[in-house]
Amino acid sequence: MIWLGGGLVASAAEPDKIEYNRDIRPILSDNCFACHGPDSASRKADLRIDQRDAAIEMAAISPGDPDASEMIRRILSEDESERMPPVETKKKLTEAQKQLLVRWIRDGAEYQPHWSLIPPTRPELPKVGNAWWVRNPIDAFVAARLEAAGLNAAPEADRRTLARRLSLDLTGLPPTPEMVEEFVNDSAPDAYERLVDKLLASPHWGEHRARYWLDASRYADTHGIHIDNYREMWSYRDWVIKKFNENMPFDTFTIENLAGDLLPNATLDQQIGSGFNRCNITTSEGGAIDEEYAVLYTRDRTETTSQVWMGLTAGCAVCHDHKFDPLSQREFYEMAAFFNNTTQKPMDGNVKDTPPVVTVPMDADRPRWNDVGKQIPNAKKLLDERRQNARPEFNTWLATAKPSDVAVEIPTSDLELYVPLDDGGATVRYELKGQKADAALPSTVEWRDGKLGGKAAYLNQGAILEVPAAGDFDSNQGFSYAAWVKLPANDGAGAVLARMNEDDNFRGWDLWVEGRRIGGHLVNSWPANALKVVTRDQLPADQWVHVAVAYDGKSKAAGFQVYVNGQLQPTNVLADTLSGTTKTTVPFKVGQRHKSSPLSGASVQDVRVYARRLADGEIASLAKSALTAVIAAAPDKRTEADLNALYDWWLATVDEAYKSLSQTHDSLVRAQADVQARSTIAHVMQEKDEAALAFVLNRGEYDQRRDQVAPSTPKMLPPFPGDAPRNRLGFAKWLLRPEHPLTARVTVNRLWSEVFGTGLVKSAGDFGVTGELPSDPALLDWLAVDFRESGWDVKRLMKLIVTSAAYRQSAVVTKDKLEKDQENRLLSRGPRYRMDAEMVRDYALASSGLLSEKIGGPSVKPYQPPGVWEAVAMIGSNTRDYKQDSGEALYRRSMYTFWKRSAPPASMDVFNAPNREHCVVVRERTNTPLQALVTLNDPQFVEAARRLAESSLKATADVTGRMNFLAERLLARRLRPNEVAIVQASLEKFQKHYAASEEDAKKLVDVGDSNVEATAPPADLAAWTMVANQLMNLDEVLNK
Amino acid sequence: MNAFEQFRLNVTRRHFLGTGSHLLGTAALASLVGNGLAQRASAGINPAARLHFAPRAKHVIYLHMVGGPSQMDLFDYKPVMKDWFDKDLPESVRMGQRLTTMTSGQARFPIAPSMYKFEQVGQSGMWISELLPWLKKTADDLVFIRSMHTEAINHEPAITLMQTGNQVTGRPCLGAWSSYGLGTLNNNLPTFVVMVARSTNTEQVQAISARLWSSGFLSGEHAAVSFRTAGDPILFINDPPGVPRDIRRASLDGVSALNELNYQQIGDPQTHTRIQQYELAYRMQASVPELTDIASEPDSTYKLYGDAAKEPGTFANTALLARRMVERGVRFVQIYHNNWDTHSNVAGRLPDQCRDVDQPCYGLIQDLKQRGMLDDTLVIWGGEFGRTIYSQGGLSAQNYGRDHHPRCFTMWMAGGGFKGGAVLGETDDFSYNIVKDPVHIRDFHATVLSQLGFDHERFTFKHQGLDQKLTGVFPARILSEVLA
Fold first, then answer.
1. Which positions in chain A touch B217 (Cβ < 8 Å)?
2. What predicted TM-score, i.e. pTM, was given to this entire model?
3. CB contact under 8 A, A770 and B206
4. Domains and CATH numbers, chain B
5. What ipTM was estimated for this complex?
6. Considering only CA atoms, which of B387, B282, B334, B270 is closest in space to residue B7?
7. Number of helices and strands (H, E) in chain A?
């Protein structure tokens, strides 16, 4: 199987002059460095031969004298026990490799730094024979290499092919027939350039470039790990599209991605850019340990940044020194320190807006948003001042206050159910609508010390009380419920109160605890039609707290408030889709839902259920019911904490001045909330106040900290500027320094690969020793320097590439080219390869006229067979049930498809779309039967075929005319006579079948949500739908 | 162009050009281009090129119980615990080992003895809980490992470790490695299939994810094809409504003819690959319905697996399908059954869980045995970790909950060269620490690979310059004492 070897540039064939990087390093790297390389931990015999001085010192190499070089003696040795590489490594040097090493040492054993670590300089353009072919500097390099290989460039492709190729490369969409015709008929000398400019100016340019960037930045719409809930991230996607369309210079783009938040007076836009580092996967799995995930997130950010900007596989140094590249484990953690200083909590909370986030108001709301934002601090200040100053008045009030002053404030009207749970008796006493009653005490309950004196019910896996007639509320009526609770220090979940029927999709309501956060559900049918709100902050463990929920009867989360100790709490809205009834026939229970979710290890007391929404003050009073005891106590027995609590209550319920200030403040906060409700958000980076640091972690284990390290960059790269801040901003600027050898090279290489399918360095994510050598190092360097000196101008670079003669070649493969340039690394022909997943789908939508032109906005859920999400997702995940959108949302560009990480878009997954868990800079490109099934049978494609068929039927009655109508949209050309004959034969079979079976015809044309236009008989439409489906599946359509 | 040359040109190239002299086995290469080409491609070449030694198993059916089954309520019998009811777990047993944050704040760790009766069965005298009456009957076909252990204490990292050998995502799973090494036995079916069974009780279903059956850094062809329990078994395997087979045939004939014209003009070898992939897709459209047509099974089948096997999506149904797949040459079938995460309400849940899987496991083993397939089919049963002897939340004589426990858990295997009726490993009286023959996940992986014919040390794939392997960098051992 030798035929598989033979790289293009790393050939072991006898070269004229030996070059270390080209000829020697690959041999040493493959065979020797694992034990005699950069990794100190696995180094054998204390010998490293990746460094010349070290190898000479240890006498492994004696320059000019192979016979005196121990390395040569060992690799040539006949004795198995001393021959290198050792037998047990299963590595073996070929005779040619051995001779190369001998020659290299005889010639002086000259080393070179790894090619990618030498800063690029602009090379001279090579002199070429076929100067007439050269359109721009790229071609000089390409022509020189083709000539050296004895290959001719391919002729220029025809204009239709070029129009299609350009449109796909610059916008990701096929050209319209009009665009193609205009170009074909444009005889002006600059026709090609004008087409390029037109496409570069298209708003779809930004979408297409952003699509690649989203792979690199691992963008998705869910958190990724465990519950995999929704993450509201799309403002970052919009930002990337916008910046590409504005042609933001790549250096600015780099800075805003990596450190937009750290720029002085960062604008909202700049902050959104910093979302790059918020796209990583996160968890909130119950039981997970914070530090373990904090370490993983930092690692991911370090690896992603290294790979995207520097082509470094830094992750290899997480556990040990890099085996091949001069990157030590310590250096990895020094680099990681830049990314290890975020205020973000490791647990994402399963919410869509894990802090730090900023609000991104709609454009029209921005003035009001800014205005309210300025007023609130002032209102808050006035409130605080009143709180500071009113203490004497409070003391005056307190001097004469009686317990009844507080007690009478406890609301009694509409008190539906009252369960004191305070007497430790043999039964459970309660009052239902004023009627006293008793119930048997279940065995799962015991009496323990209470909050309000006396005893409280301690729960042990089961209900305390069941009252069939209580809490029978519907979603259109306001109600409130409250209790004192003491929760254990665990992350369990359960219902404090509930009237909920699990067997009817959880219909009903509850007062719910999960992870010591309190809130509730109002459910018609979980989770599609339900409301769920829980507090953002955890309740304290093993302490009595008063919890209350007040609901206004409007079926919206905005009208569902949670209070702890009488204070309104910031909450997370986990579901807000309620409509319809929440009534259920199962009984109300204290301590669990009807059948499940028992609260365990918690104490409960003073349960109250009201058939109306209590006012804030009333809830505060309930929470202060314990304060009667404070007032009753002798002044010298009152603790500071009790008095403060009483003061809070007095301010909120008695003090008119405070109440009025509070009203002003609250109305501003509500106004702000109104704007916020219409806004989206951006996940941003935010630094802690202290200096960044990290720890070297033994084997990468979070709990095995070794040395503490400060942020720094690896020694193999240019020094970090002394005057730059040691933070992400300084790091980003360091990446962009002219002497940095990697950033410009890696970036032009990635953009090149977006056009030619493969980078000049094939391993676009690995420019290290184990990565591939560039197919044309001089061209890469020329492009890198030119790109940097142009001011990192992306459109200019792309224009240069697509206006080259190399790009404009026909893709025809000849026998000669297949032999000498099988992979087209020499560019002996134009690029041709299967389009990426998104392009395949967008192509079908665009060519059939279904594609929505809308740019940006929240993600959409187009057709997807049922069960793809449901099969893997947790019950309770808000991305468990795939609810397909309708209308325009079915036909948006694929980059807007909702990306659930644990179940990526099914049809795109088949075409090698990544799952977006980690950074991807090179997509795989396979050719499989499952792909055929998608483009043949997926309703999205069948519907597109039908729509295209409809248009062709409307356009003309001529059969060949119809075929060409399809071909112009799918192939950007007309069919040739031999193709017409094949399509004709298929058409006749289709027509015969559908003429005979109108039922089949109707079934086929009925696929998809869009209306069938009644202009053609179903049999005709079905037959032509099959023709369109056939053409859509051609290799020529699926390939660029 | 001969078949070999054509194959060379057709295969997606990056998989092996990137690997230099480190070549994939022929069988592995064959599966890269899909089954249709495999036969032709491997003509004249030893299909076992990658195998390091003669395989004992050619197929694997891996039944993963998502959430972590409670070992001391099912297999790890601890009669002494009766006297420890509601007493605190001694610190000398816990020894400061880390706990999940679900219980690390608990004031007490009260011991919850299993409420279930155990019985000693079979030659090995293995103790099995009353919750698994069917499994008892086939105990002599099983190898129990009571001393499995892992480092991970939460589901995501634990299940990822169990499937891919690493807690951090992004590596190939066991099934993908198997597909890579073994290649295909059937041109018209996938090599590696995953099915997610529905649990009857859904009180505490855990997350799983497509990443668990991904191919990681191996080629995408080695990822599992998901056999869905509702709708099309394979995504879009059925033609659109109103398109009968002969019309599809006519349409594909046209596609092929037009592609051939395009090939004559452009000469891109990938065009020929595409033609073949479309033909393969067409054949899969016939072989998949044949595979899933369980109506052809006799009554005796349902006597073995139980009537639930008739109902799509049940565990019994997937077990039956697994047998039909293996029969037709599928190499690796991965089944997930959920809801074993009994943090609370063991009494209300565990019996349901066992009812779902007990008889079907028995049925599968017997069925394979009767057909002479158990010898070369390895059946694996287990979760991602075990559970704690102490109760999470409240404890009563009638009910308790158990938190995650990584220090020990039980798995069983059958067939595939394992020695039926053997038991490996012991834990302490608290089923908390292992006292004899610890088995790490990498030991388990190494042993499975060895049964398939691979030396885990040499079964590698070059990625980021390193020879990556399923078992990672720490040494792993083959569990030879439980191999026949």
1. none
2. 0.81
3. no
4. 1-50 (no CATH), 57-230+312-482 (3.40.720), 240-297 (no CATH)
5. 0.82
6. B270
7. 36, 21
